[in-house]
Fold each of these.
Amino acid sequence: MAQEDMVLQQIEREVRMQEGAYKLLAACSHRDQALEASKSLLTCNAHILALLSQLQKIRKEQILKQEGSRTSEDVLPCTGRVSLSDLRIPLMWKDSEYFKNKGELHRCAVFCLLQCGTDIYDTDLVMVDRTLTDICFEDKAIFNKVGPEFQLRVELYSSCAKEDSSWGVPGPRRISFLGGSLGRTSGKKIRFAVESAASCGVGDVRPGHVTPSLPLHLSTPGPKFNLLAHTTLRIEHVRDGFKTHDLTLSATEDSPFWLPLFGNVCCRLVAQPQCMLQPAISGQLQVKLEEDSDDWKRFNCILRGQALLCYQSREELETEDKPLVVIPIRKDTRVCVSEADLLYGQHIVIKTPLQGNGSYTITSCNIENTQRWNKTLQQHVDNLRHWKQCCEHVMKIEMPSSKKSNRVKQGSLYHEIVTPYSPRERPVVPDLSDEIRSLLSSYHKERSARLEFPLPLSQPFNVNTPGGKPGRPSWRPLQPTLKGPIDGGLNNLLIRVFSPVSVRLPLSKSLHIHPSFHVSRIKPFTQSQFHPAPDFPPPAHLIDGVPAYSVRRLLQSTRWGRGLHYLEDWEGYGPEERSWVPAHNILDCSLIWDFHRQHPD
């Protein structure tokens, strides 16, 4: 009766949460608040139906136990952990909607409800429109104490996310609903909860069952979530990897909450049986390694996973060193008890097909211990047989990250309803003036005392300057480049430090670059056989006070307006510095004659 009372207490707690969700939904003033409240209400209904199903199962087992149909000595397979993560549902939009971005923008709020037995997990809300190709849920759901016959039901719920201005103005009916009393008996609460949850159609895990889309409550305003698709995952679907499963669609295209689902769901479903994680039994055994031999050896043995590990001493077992003998235990292993021997008593014979050694014989110091080992071995083989491919190796389960703390936002439902405070209970704002003053003081002290340069003294360095050659026409903007190396340092006063973050460099005037730089633009110069020192660009020639640059050759020509422009390859500069120059800016006419002689077209 203690288990039944605990389930009844959980039902009453869920009923109170359901009533609170009704009131919150009626008081919502924003769309996001209403969607979260409606989702909480649907989740509470699913919890209530799951607990009622568990209560019915407990009472049925009590009746069978009283009638003698089932004894308490029935051995069940071990439990384990099941994890569902990386949930992704592909969408299939029409070409006009997705690629051409035409048609009405259909926007829905969706979430997944994951149920395994009485454990229910709900994912975060995701807003979906035609800009998405997949519905992705980053949640990781872990279900503990799950048997090998588990059925994990995945339900996708959707609600049309249209703005409704009527949510923010509660009418008289809403005000009367908010002022309702919670003083009801537990029986009325549970009966009301069952009727409301049943109207949702949530929690039925029968194969092929389609959840009806009925209203949550006649007097409940706000958005309604409807079942869009569902599927049921079993132990046959467990794989250590990302797999695709079929979805059963429950909505038609004319529904306002409909989304163009592809009909599949991709996820990672893994399981960890307890028989693969924890040792089943350990102790000293006498082991006969060869079937036709009478040579018995004493080992300290432990049954773990798919092997019976035999160590020479207890210390080696505790340190998990390499075992001397490994007896394989598989789901097809046969464990039987032979007749009693005058010297060693009863024997346990372990036979595993398709193994090098035919069989192993073990025994213990007394009959009781031997029977305990025999019972544990048979139960362990039965566990491996029930969990099937989950026992081939230990699958990795990623633990979910800690949930973010609920931050109170201005205008949120929590801020408006749950935490009203009186004027004398206003939150205390900490005085930050002392901290600000201390920070400013430390900043000024550091600035006055710190005049060192971030590079070592007299070390060559590169300067990060804007790309392109100033004073020349360029057909496209170039990326910033490193110019250098520049030899100098603080010792020979080639660098002037104005502040801890800015310096002035002795650059040539022909570069047409301002000599003041932030220290982040100055990098230490490194040189090796794979990174030789670059050649510094040659300076410009001054002709009548105007800078002019040497041209290596002309590469191309194009008609630009009323004249020709030529693509020039500058002497001493790389190909990234090439630019188009009008013909009248080329001082050496022989370059133009040579170009047209080589390219008469």
Amino acid sequence: MVDAVVMTLLCAAVAGSATSSSCSNCDGNNVTCVDGVCLPRCVSVTSSGECLQCRDSRFYGKQCQHDCPDTCLNSRCQIINTRVVCTEGCVAGKKGDHCGVNCPTACTQCERYGDGCTGPCQNPQYYGQHCRTPCPSNCRGGCNWITGECGTCEPGYRGKHCNITCPSNCRDCDRETGECIHCVEGYRGDHCDSCEPGYTGDYCNITCPLNCRDCDREIGECIHCVEGYRGDHCDSCEPGYTGDYCNITCPLNCRDCDRETGECIHCVEGYRGAHCDSCEPGYTGDYCNITCPLNCRDCDRETGECIHCVEGYRGGHCDSCEPGYTGDYCNFTCPPNCRDCDRETGECIHCVEGYCKGGCDEQGDNCNSTSCKTTCRANCNVYDFTQNQCSGPCINANYYGKICTIPCPDNCDKCEKDSARCLNCAPGVRGELCNESCPSNCKLCGRYDNKCIGLCHDSNYHGVSCSDPCPVGCEGCEKDTGLCIGCARSFSRTYCDDMCSPCSQDTCHTEHCQKRM
């Protein structure tokens, strides 16, 4: 009998599939669609015709003729003691055996056989087992339905439950650390306890003086002026700036200039003039950073030769005594009636007109004789009338010959009277015959070596041959030590024996360098 029933159902299914490959002809009476084929819901029946096993758990009843309730999770159920029981639980919002009872209105999901909520609350502003406890008042957008912790806080609050206030004057702060993210206008800092640049006063609500970036909170005096200004109230131009708005730079090489006229008040070391465009006395070079020769008051900017020596000195480098002076420092006057005297011995070389040292045919130590003979040769110390020649060296050693009238060779600085052999080499040449050039950057050099004597021609080099470039940042350097004479633009130093280091406008030292104590 059972086999007959099953065969009947299978035949019906086969007949239905013969007319259509889809499930459109399943009549729904104890038949279900499986993979496009209409099959019986029951897979095993009793001898009385009751179904022992439905094809799947979406059906129940003696012939598996009933669909499980839609409130069952995944529509799965079974008969237990004549009751329909959802086997996989209830859909959201339902509870009970067959999930036909609504959850409490506050819950989106609840306990199957109780009133406790098991999912988020319907109203995100509540939390707890029954979703009846309001979230903390300073939560923004609700709280965790189990713990009550806030997702985000209202501005001005922090902490898990947004129950801790941010620092005073803080609009919004970090929820964990408490550090302020946004201060109210006028304040700054992690705790908004200091005024932001441009504000002052007990409540940081007073603006700093015009042109002031930051000022003292208590007294209101400016700490940092905008570029170009200085003073407690930023009402004067800082050194190097001029104009109504202190936005015009002073002339090049000028430390401070008149705000109205723009004329320079203080030039940088080495410069002078209303526009600092000429060297002050004692300085020379393209950048007025090379000192004039020793004992020179003022020298030519291009050649470096002295224009005005200090009293007692003369020459392009002020290295010889002027007529009438003698001594190591040219500070002793020559003997009476003497126009020019030997620097080392003090003996007179040329007497003033009308006086002589005994004439040409007699010797004397001082210019105390007036019996001078006019037949003397001008460049002879002693003239030998019998031989018509000078006896002894020429007065001016830059001449040679019998009567000391032939100029020494151009490459000589003084020569022997009889042979014209160079006693000293002219500037720029060296060697036994004074026919070898000094190093290109030397003004003078040793006759028998390549060592430069005196200053280098280009002060941006140093060393024994004036061939070593000065350190980067120098504006000229000492020949022997390589120490900077001055600093180039955008470099500065504090002490004169420091090297010049890069600097920005705020850190550049514009004052003269200091000597260490």
Amino acid sequence: MRDALSKVLVSKDVFYTDVSTTKCVSSIRAEVSNVSAYIFLNKSISDPGFRSATYVIHAVGEDVHCPPINGNEIDLLVFRVDSKRELTDVLTCLKNCPLLKSKSKTLVVMKHIRTKTISGVFKTLWENGIFNSLITVQRDIGHVMDLYGWGAFSQSSRCGRVFTNYFHVGACANGTVLFDGDEASLQKFAETSFHSCSISVRVVDWPPFVIPETQNPPDRKNANYIGGFEVQLVKTIASYLNVELRFSVSEKDLNWGTLHENGTASGLYLALLEKSADIGISSLTFPPGYRFLDYGPIYYYEKLVWCVRSPPLMVSWKKLIIALNTIHWHFLVIIYVVASVLVWALSKRQEPGHSKKLGRCFTRTLADILGNPSALPKTTSLRVFFTFWLIFCFHTNLFYLTNLMSLLSKAVTEVEFATSDEILNSSLKLMFLSATKMYFTSDRTPNAFDKKVLGRWVDCPNLETCFAMTVQRGDSAICLPESFILYMGARYMPAPMSCLLRAEDTLVSYPVTMFMRKNLPLASKISQAAQRLSESGLLGAWRQMAFDTDSADFEQLSRPPEENSTVFSLKEFKPLFRCVIFGWVAATVAFILEHLIHQVISKYSTWKNAPPQY
């Protein structure tokens, strides 16, 4: 008797009543299962080892309440069925229950079945993600049960593509199991060589995660991908497991699709649900109905940011102002006023012949700041002040001219949108990739931010159109993943586009993982390998390599490379020449006006002082 707590899964209310069959099932179970947690059969079996709770699953295709059993604790699944159709119905009932694990061993007990049907039973099990299986079939004569096995990953089985090469393992009578060969033939469950397997990977062309070799490949069911750090990840896993990879892509561009809570799906997720693909990659995260699929470890965190049309170039005269920031200008004005007043106060009492008018002091102090110092004062106190004042003016001029030359030698743009809130509060159209909508429509109650985004949501039909609306028309802002922006910005992103990449401007941050169809036989090994590669730090190196790989799908957005140096020409000095000419004109006009006023005043004084004539 086993001391371990046993759990029961039955596919019929009543098991076999004959003692011989019951003993055989118990003996086979004891041979193939050697850990403490099991799933057994009906408690009516006259074997104390089957003492446990019972969960009855009717093989009529009905909806069933999942038993409260953790599938990871299951070592053996036992099904009692009379036909392949009945087995299919039972598995259909359990398809959404966390019981069917590909690593679990499975024993199918069948009363009577024709030999040619055995291959169909193994195929049914394989299609439901069960490959560690044995079938027991009772002979028509006597109480003998034959055992059949099938090497799912053997060379002859070709990893689930050939089911007719099943083999006879042994026979059982009255609880005694007789093997055809070594007892180890019953333990062909844990295969380690997958050289005959191939894995279908469904992707969406999305650098730097997935980078295609050619644009619009002729065979989308067998495409070739040269780069992308997720492509490198699955290729490394395939090399480790010694399996073959087959990449496929949808006929529709950017067809991620979605997976709803009720199990309905579209795009890439639909391919996984329909088992036309084994693995899905391309910056995938958890959709609302992710429980209908298996998934690997989280190996990257992505975030969505805004991109808008780059603001226009700043007019040159503004560069004269922004060479110093607002604080510097305020500080300089205060120092200028204080210095002028101080010079006036000291000159008024101590400096004979020096400027004693406040207006003239302001003029001379301004000349000092502009690099044209006035005559050296005569008193000691003013000379000490004047010396430090000239040192301050020299450093201020040097700082200003350095910043000004830097601004004049490069293109400087106006700042239109500095934060994400300014974009949300603007009149721009908000363009989004349709696959990102689930980040704002989760099962939680949408907050005010989500409602604002969804209220102005506009689906992006394709990237080329969205870029045109953002760059050429300038009436839109597009929301894109940061990794895609960083990849595209180096070579393909339209030049007049800028993106808000600061952490505080992030709209949404989400984890990236790979998804697998439910009960993929190699799911556990793929997840373990992905976890080890993620922890090794190789993903960071592969991601950097992806940024250096060209993508054929985005050549239409390419732009000529920018030169590292900026040509410095006399055009940059046009504002300065304008200022000089304006100063000369203003000075000339002032001189003429002053001369005219002086002439008028002189004539008036002469007329006034002239003696009266009688």
Amino acid sequence: MMEIRFTLLLLVLLLVGCNSKQDEAVPIDDTSTQELSYLTHAPASKRTWLTLNHLQQGEYSQPSPIHNSYFMPIDAELTTLDNFSGNLTMKETKMLGNGPEEDNRGKGYLFFPGFTTDFYTQGEHFVPVKQDIIYSTGYDSFWGIILSPGKIWSEADDQGWLRVAFPFVLTDKLRSQTHNGIATFLFDPTNNEVSKFRFQVVQQTASYFQYHFWGQLDLLFNNESSEDFIAHKAMFNQYLAALPNIATWQSLTAAVEEDYVNAIVSDPNGADYSAIGLHYNDTLYLQACPTPYGDFPFCAQMRQGSFSAAKSMGAGMLLMWLTQKYGEEILDDVVTKYLPIEADHNQWDQVTIQHLIDMSSSIGELGIYPENDMFSDEYNEKTGPWTWATSAQEKLDISNSYSHYSWSPGEVFRYRTVDTFTLAAVMDALIKQKEGNDVNLWDRFTVEVLNPIGIAVLPAIHTIETNGTRGIPLLGTGLFPTAIDTVLISKLLQNKGVHNGVTLLNTSVTEKALAASTMHSLPSFNDNSIQNDNINYRFSFWLIKGTNMDCEYWIPRMAGYGGNFINLLPNGVTFFVYQDAFNSDFLVEAEKIANSLSPMCP
């Protein structure tokens, strides 16, 4: 799929913009004479770094991130601590890093975002209440932050203090790039004191911005919180109950030839792959999540940048849900029934919801022949301004300024992220028309679909509205799933939208969308105007022709920039790769493993 890679690479270069400053890395003290083995090697049986004393000091004492294992238990006693809660606040603060100082809008890459969140403890778990995107409370930071549950424990040398470690993500307001970090601090539940906040950001799904950040900052603690957490704790228990069994990748060799298993290997240096996993019979076989500083400790909970995989797990699933609520007939509703569109042509009067989810709206300007590249109109002079537009109306104004092709809607596949946003706006207007203006599309979907399958929060970027309301979700590129989220979503899709006997997604629509055939799909063309015999598109899913020669089948795939792939194989196996280097999708190798677990041909 080289044509996909090249086109999307050009797109991202436009989206990111150029930083003319190209600042040097933040200067740090010369520690070249010190013994620095702790930077890249796992600790021994006794803690020598990130001690209580280290975390009570005012400054960061290492010249770079250190091995991730120092953030986790070392000679520890597992601690259970129920009903302890409070509030944590971080002020926007300068951090260390090896990248540029700021973006081309003057926002600081080297400012850790300010945030505040309530938290509670439950058993050995540390649970922040805010797990959606938190945009910095200051004015200088480029970043927003997503906090995830972590763990608590005690160590003998910590003088009665308890340790906390949890994963987080730095991201922005426009794209689902992720910069994965891990943080730790100590607290004294008796005297309500906390240490400094130590963190490092050492992995990413963002091929265009591969830098690391680290630091030791002040953390404010208040033992008073604004909630009783009853609903949060119930949802967290539901999440724990929904967790699949997690096994090592190598344990697949119990049922699969070792050569097949070993053929799928992530980069041990942590440069390319963030997560690789396979789900079958409620077991997630997960490779370690490598980084340049050792494996990421919270691999299964590590949030990934979906990029365009959001079109399937976002827009596609939302439409499966809405057809369950309101009937399949809404697929034939014209877009203008719900969304007023001001354009210099009347083609929109023929475009239906079905056309938008199939990427066959017939709206567009570049690639005027049906056999032109499927990405002809994805990358153009309007793409940058559309991406940088922050409000829904700004985005829609640009989307509506496009002309139209000579063919009718539904006839030709043209990949256009702007059409997915228009679809999101239509679905938002539809649900508001049905249930009231105070209903938010993504929040309602979360409550009615994601929560029941065990996903408490799936962060989604929304447009930013001047009236303070929660805007339209960016369902084309803006989701942040974990490996566990990926499994739970894929399991629901593989089960045709049914969870524990309850139909959450329209079964008929889901079944048609994920059929292992090309029925109701459209062919794709590459940049040489040649039809791709092995790639079709339907209902936000790519269809990839299987390689098993004993029978013909097609594999529905969610796909995103950088080489993110979630493949729903016809025998119930789900195989996924999150990466940012456009390397192998390993699909041929994954098919061999899947076929060993359960034959794909009758």
